[in-house]
UniProtKB/TrEMBL annotation:
InterPro entries hit by this protein: B30.2/SPRY, B30.2/SPRY_sf, Butyrophylin_SPRY, ConA-like_dom_sf, E3_ubiq-ligase_TRIM/RNF, PRY, SPRY_dom
Pfam family, one: SPRY
Molecular function per GO: zinc ion binding
Alphabetical UniProt keywords: Metal-binding, Zinc, Zinc-finger
Keyword Zinc on entry: yes
UniProt domain B30.2/SPRY: residue ranges: 139-284
GO terms under cellular component: cytoplasm
Taxonomic superkingdom: Eukaryota
Source organism per UniProt: Umbra pygmaea
PROSITE patterns to which the protein is assigned, alphabetical: B302_SPRY
Gene3D superfamilies assigned: 2.60.120.920
Name assigned to this protein: B30.2/SPRY domain-containing protein
Length: 284
């Protein structure tokens, strides 16, 4: 009877795992599709915006070309009029007055100035408005990503290191937010809670329940451990129980020799992480 119950329990556990995996797959697929929809909307909006600007640019260039063609026609007519007038005056032996020559020249210059490409007028206020809206949209998107990090930070918990638990070769900052290793053994009071062999320090705050998130900067460090422990962790001597994750009352993530390892109750579990975290984000 006991064997049958155990067998049923194993089947039930397998079914639960299968259901959880299916749910996880559905959630992942739904999130992936939403990101694809967001990207599709952004791509479409970019396409429409660039098309609009291109159409306005082409319209401005076309208007300029039409104006240039019209002015060229007018200039040709002026040149023809000048040639005819000069011929008539030549037949009468009359010189063309300087004032009339200057007036004709000014008229030609005026017509030519209207075909200056620098005079092309685009709808600059609209372009500025589009740029402003795009910048605001970028700020909104940046403020929302990465989503997972923002979600984790909603569980943010302030912790400060307890200097009365720190090993004598660890210098704890006044704010309790950093620990620095020193080769010199500091003359510190012998307290029951102080680690005297392992280079450990624990926080003043403790947690009984809930989710908690914190960040730890480990940049440039070649070896470190980050973990959780019950207050009952051994503090004295060389017993492995003093190390995080080596006893039954603590858990730890260790970085050493370029590799990450998870520890609990003295059992090591290699991690799939293959790059140095900087900073390391911790959550429980």
């Amino acid at each position: 009877m006991q064997k049958l119950f155990a067998y049923k329990a194993q089947i039930t556990s397998a079914l639960i795992d299968s259901v959880n995996q299916n749910k996880s797959s559905v959630i992942r697929e739904s999130i992936r599709k939403k990101y694809e929809e967001i990207q599709k909307v952004l791509d479409e909006d970019l396409k429409v915006t660039l098309t609009q600007l291109e159409m306005e640019e082409k319209a401005a260039v076309t208007a300029l070309e039409d104006l240039m063609e019209k002015n060229c026609t007018v200039i040709q007519e002026i040149e023809q009029d000048l040639a005819r007038l000069a011929a008539e005056l030549a037949q009468r032996d009359i010189l063309l007055p300087d004032e009339m020559d200057t007036a004709m020249e000014d008229r030609v210059k005026y017509l030519l100035s209207g075909t200056d490409p620098s005079q092309v007028k685009l709808d600059e206020p609209k372009a500025d408005q589009i740029l402003s809206l795009a910048n605001k949209m970028l700020l909104v998107i940046r403020s929302q990503i990465p989503i997972i990090k923002r979600l984790n930070k909603s569980y943010s918990t302030d912790v400060s290191l307890d200097p009365e638990t720190a090993h004598p070769k660890l210098i704890i900052s006044h704010q309790g937010d950093s620990a620095t290793y020193t080769d010199n053994w500091q003359e510190l009071p012998e307290l029951p809670g102080r680690f005297d062999t392992t280079l450990n320090v624990i926080s003043l705050q403790g947690f009984n329940s809930g989710r908690h998130y914190w960040e730890l900067d480990v940049s440039g460090k070649t070896y470190w451990e980050l973990g959780l422990t019950y207050p009952t962790i051994s503090r004295k001597g060389r017993a492995e129980d003093c190390w995080l994750g080596r006893g039954s009352d603590s858990w730890a993530v260790e970085f050493f020799n370029g590799e990450y390892t998870a520890w609990h109750n003295g059992v090591a579990q290699p991690s799939t992480l293959c790059k140095t975290l900087q900073p390391y984000w911790g959550a429980v």
